[in-house]
Amino acid sequence: MIAAPTRAALRYRRGQAVLLALLSALVVGSVAFAPLYARSLELGLLRGALDRAPVAATAIQLSPSRPAGGAALTPDVARQAFPPELAGLFDGGSELWSGTVRVDSRLGSATPAMYAAREVCAGLTVDTGRCPVTAYEILVSTAEAGFQGWTLGQVLDAREVRPAVRAVPAFAQPVTIVGTYTQVPDPAHWLRIRLDGRAGSSALDPDGTPLLDAFVTAPATFGEQTSDPQGRGWRHAVLSVIFLLDRSTISLDDLAQLRPVISGAADAGLRAQPRLTVRSPIGELADDVLEGQRQVRLIVPLLMAQLALLAVVVLGLVAGSAVEQRRQELALARLRGGSASGAARLVVAELGAAVIAGAPIGLLAALGTDALLRRIWLPQPLPVEMPWLAIAAAIVGAAIGLGAVIAVVRPTVARPVSELLRRVPARRHGHAVALSDALVIGVAAAAVLALATGSVTGPLALATPGLLALAVGLALAHVVTPVAARIGARSARRGNTVASLAAVQVARRPAVRRIVAIVTVATSLAVFATDAALVAARNRDVRARIETGAVAVLSVGTQDPTLVVRALDLADPDRAAATPVAWVIQAGAGAIQTMAVEPRSFARVADLGRDREAFALRRLDSSVAAPSAGAADALPAYVVGGLPPGTTPGMPFQGAGLDGVAVQFAAIGELPYAPGERSTNTAVVSLPALLARPHGTLAVGRMQVFLADPAAEARVSAALQSVGAPVTAVTRTADLQARYDESASAWGLRLAVGVAGLAVLIAGLVLVLVAATAWRGRARDYAALRVAGIPQEVIRRASLAEQAVVVLLATAVGAGCGIASAAMALPILPLFTTPWTALRPDLTLDGAAVVGTVAIALGVLLVSAAGVAAVLVRRATPDRLQEVQ
Amino acid sequence: MTERGGVGVSTRGLVHIYRSEGHDVAALSGVDLQVAPGEIVGLLGPSGAGKSTLLTLFGGLLRPSAGSIRVDGQDLATLADADLDDYRATQVGMVLQGADRNLLPFLTPRQNVDFAGHNARARGRQVPEAGQVLDVVGIGPAADRPLAELAPGQRQLTALAVGVATFPGLLLADEPTSQLDHAARDTVLAAIAQVNAQVGTTVIVVTHDPEVAARLPRTVTIRDGRVGGEGRLGEEYAVVSADGSLPLPPAALEDLAPGTLVRVHPVNGWWTILPADVDVEESGEAPYRGRHE
Question: Model confidence over B58-94: pLDDT tens digits?
Fold first, then answer.
């Protein structure tokens, strides 16, 4: 409990106690907020990643091989092999059967796939008829039924494709069409399997057979299995048991174990009998989130530590001033026989009570701020967790605040009683830098050097502006007072009263050193944070645009580029808003993929980032490259990612044509990146040139339409649908931008701007506080000047100049530190969770943002300074001189 | 050592040197002083003479540069810091110049006196009730009023009460009547006398006020860091120092400037001081003589 004299003291200096409590709250809040918000960001990263990820990206697929001895393939093997550690995170698994059958079609014998899932018609719209129920009932796609002329009830002769066997018996029961379907883009079913979209296509598979849409049947169809090459039933049916992630239960802690557990299961599956194939892309998602988590755990504490440190310095400043005001009380306690430690306890009890009282306020403020930022910045919903770590951090913060109070009390109580009794404290002379300041400058400078030379990298770069400004600001602070003294003396000799008064006041106030250092640090933080946030946003925007390729990119369900070209001729004959892009992927390590484009429309429509000129692609208009050694008919190509190994400029190299067959390309230039493609190893060639060459069945791996105008999406999609090449997916730059905006770096830099803003406000508060704790003495000084005949206007201008010059100087130096920090730190600060190798980030300083930030900071600080100056002058009345000191 | 009542104070060759802005200042240059237990003594002298330094030394707040200072037989110069804390807690009370400097503004008179006696109580000493102390100095009725409501004289009495909170053997008061009107001054002086009479406390008071000095039974003038003279019951006396020096009164110094050669002659059982150029037999009546008592 608080003793009576302490309670009386707190009531007597209520305002000071409240101020100390609020500053303590700021310290505690900053310290407690760090683990709270870091955890929120980690949860946000997980939530965002899960929200964005398609179902297939978070599923685990187990595919058993046929057991030895002719036993039937069953899903039990897969279910039993599912890692028990993950049982609570995934569902019970659903079976997906697949096989290939041969049927007669309008275009000849065709080999459509046949699929059966547990929920037969989930993810499908049954346009006519009904869902298959019994074995050998099938759905065919509505488009295919129309093209082939198939009707409900029609029986098709379907036999499993067994390539090694020429004469194969038919199924015991032919398949009966019981309905027609259209696949809906439902990510929860069929994962990435495209069932329809081929109907009416003249494309052929590599064997030369026409491509048909898949048949959908009931699982019972795959009930008959055989290992006899000539037996009844399925011999080559494939079973996959797909386990879907329960996105509402997985936690960050679960994420860390996913990759190693799945890898372990995959290894075990390879050694098992029968063999079990385990596939899952969730490891990539987990790695991304965990990398973001690692960055968050550095970024947030680093930022909040700087704010907490600033708050501790201000708390120390106010506490120091409070202790000086209590010098007389300390003297009396010592005078009446109290020891130094006893006297210290007296003051610490009073000030410490205020600091402790601020702790719960700080904790509540941290909780409230975290809740608010969660709601406005982070994906929803996020689980609510008990803030044990924040409570522990709050206790640490309170201890830090108490420590700051004790640290400023001890030097005062250690002074001799006779010195404490002096009305005017003894002034220390000389300009030697205090040992503690020298130590801080040294440590800060060493840390900046480590960052500048690359000895330290990563999110630690965020400490650069604070450290650099601390070193420079403290050093500047110790230069200001002697320089001001000289300027004051010189101005007085020249009769410049305003300058002389202002300079002398600056020289004789010890608090000026702290003000200079604090304003320098605050401005440096503000300038750096604003520039870093905008530079990062700029680069996120560029990366999103380049990696998407255009404002919107339509993925088209066809392997025949001529269909897409035909559709665009209908919807956009001038190619003002749309351009086709065909991708042909080659197998093998180091193989180059082909990106075939219409050069002129591509250069107009695609989003080319800042290297527009490089993508003019003019030389692709020629269908034949300039003759070079051994490559008279090589197709000109721009290369991304450098030439293939063993190839020199001018030498032809092997690429893939639209039919997958090898084509000679000749490199005529390099591009920094391929729009719409993350990987390198790409050859960009002319689509018309490739189509003009002799080719086999067109079978591109990926067919896209890039759109420059979102308004064109509807008509282009309709045209594509009309030619039998429906749109299967749409990717937008805005979506990718949103994803990059939901990253540890983006959130961290947003927080940095908030922290910097608070730092500037704290600096303004310091100006007011310093004046508030010493206003009587300064008002008496001004009153004495008035009595001596100095006009009030002169005193007013001198008072304003005294405040403003310090603010202007420190702000200018702080801005310089912020700019220098940006140059040093931005190259090593991670702007993305996953590295961006296609392009070097553009780290050019955002001049307008820097100027704006400095203007705002100056505005806040000069308003505080002007207010302080006005109040001091107003209170400098002659009767002030008669006050009892 | 007395439990209650006054204690004796003596100094011999007391020297104190301050270091200020790189050079030394001798505040006291050899003070020899004796104060008997229960005596009331006023310290007079011009500003900078060393009065406050002497008081501070008596209070155990400074250590002398040379010489000895004994309070109740204890040589303060040899006490450890913890013992000085004990001394200040139990044996001596100080009243600083300016009443407000002695008081915690957020406490009442009663609470201030309690605060002043806290350390003595913690050391097991029998400390009078705060009300009793306030009654002795004459401010009992205002014991529980806020300090801001008290008149200047009442605040000075409160400061005095704080100084005698433990009924110490020695009370040191620095200008206890400064900035008070005549009535308040008289009240404070009466209170000091009351404390001396009732408790027996030895009192040493620093004052500039000749009217206050006139009311004190004994005054000691400090001049240039040494005892320059004494006053008892209105009479001024020069005091022969332990080293045999005799500080002359200011009026004598007008005729005998420093450096003047004088002869000291015994004449009819008296000692006479004559300038060197004055013949003793021719002078007839000696201009100065010190009366042997």
Answer: 999 999 999 999 999 999 999 998 999 999 999 999 9
Q: Which residues contact A488 (CB under 8 A, 6 or more apart)?
A: A499, A500, A501, A502, A503, A504, A506, A507
Q: What does the block give as tokens for A14?
A: 């209520």
Measured in angstroms, the CA of A817 and the nearest CA of chain B are apart by 38
Assess B252–A contact: CB distance below 8 Å, yes or no.
no
Q: For A40-85, how does the pLDDT look when each residue is reduced to its tens digit (9 = 90+)? A: 999 999 999 998 888 888 889 888 877 666 666 778 888 888 888 8
Cα distance between residue A665 and residue A594, in whole Å = 10
Q: Which two tokens stand for residue A646?
A: 């063993």
Distance from CA of A415 to the nearest CA of B (A): 11
Chain B residues within an 8 Å CB radius of A5: 104, 106-107, 111, 115
β-strand partners of A554: A705, A730
Per the CB < 8 Å rule, is A429 touching B21?
Answer: yes
Secondary structure (3-state) at A687: helix
**What's the pLDDT band for A34 if we cut at 50, 70, 90?**
very high
CA distances, A376 to each of A102, A381, A699, A768, A845 (Å): 56, 12, 47, 32, 28
- Rounded to 5 degrees, what angle do the CA atoms A171, A177, A178 make? 125
Cα separation, A120 vs A116, in Å, equals 6
A274: cis peptide before it, omega within 30°? yes
Instruction: Single out the residue of A557, A600, A597, A559 nearest to residue A580, CA to CA.
Output: A597
pLDDT confidence tier of residue A154, bands split at 50, 70 and 90: very high
A381: preceding bond cis by omega (within 30 degrees): yes
Cβ-nearest to B89 among A11, A336, A884: A336
**More confident of the two residues A109 and B116:** B116
Angstrom distance (rounded) from CA B30 to CA B65: 10
Task: Note the pTM of the prediction, 2 decimals.
Answer: 0.81
| Cβ <8 Å between B104 and A332 | yes
The residue in chain A having the minimum alpha-carbon distance to the alpha carbon of residue B111 is A5
With CA atoms as reference, the chain A residue closest to B104 would be A329
Interchain pair A328, B115: CB under 8 A:
no
Residues of chain B in contact with residue A884, where contact means CB-CB under 8 angstroms, are 98, 100
Q: Is the Cβ–Cβ distance between B254 and B260 less than 8 Å?
A: no
Q: Hey, what are A35's tokens?
A: 């683990």
Cα A353 to Cα A360: distance, rounded to the nearest angstrom: 12
CA distance A8 to chain B (A): 6
ipTM above threshold 0.90? no
User: Cα distance from A537 to chain B (closest Cα, Å)?
Assistant: 56
d(CA A182, CA A573): 29
Q: Is the Cβ pair A339, B85 closer than 8 Å?
A: yes
Is beta strand A682-686 parallel, antiparallel or unpaired with respect to A593-597? parallel
Task: Say whether residue B65 is in contact with chain A using an 8 A CB cutoff.
Answer: no
Task: Give contacts of A9 with chain B, Cβ < 8 Å.
Answer: 104, 106
Residue A699 has pLDDT above 50, yes or no: yes
Which chain A residues touch B98 with a CB distance below 8 Å? 884
**Residue B292 — very low, low, confident or very high, per pLDDT cuts 50/70/90?**
very low
When CB atoms are compared, the residue of B21, B61, B89 closest to A417 is B61
* Torsional class of A804: left (φ above 0), alpha (ψ -120 to 50), beta (otherwise): alpha
Structure tokens at A598: 């219409």
d(CA A519, CA A163): 80
Query: How far A339 CA sits from the closest chain B CA (Å)?
Result: 6
B82 has a chain A CB within 8 A of its CB: yes
The whole-number pLDDT of residue A708 equals: 93
Q: Mind telling me how many Å the CA of B275 is from chain A's nearest CA?
A: 45
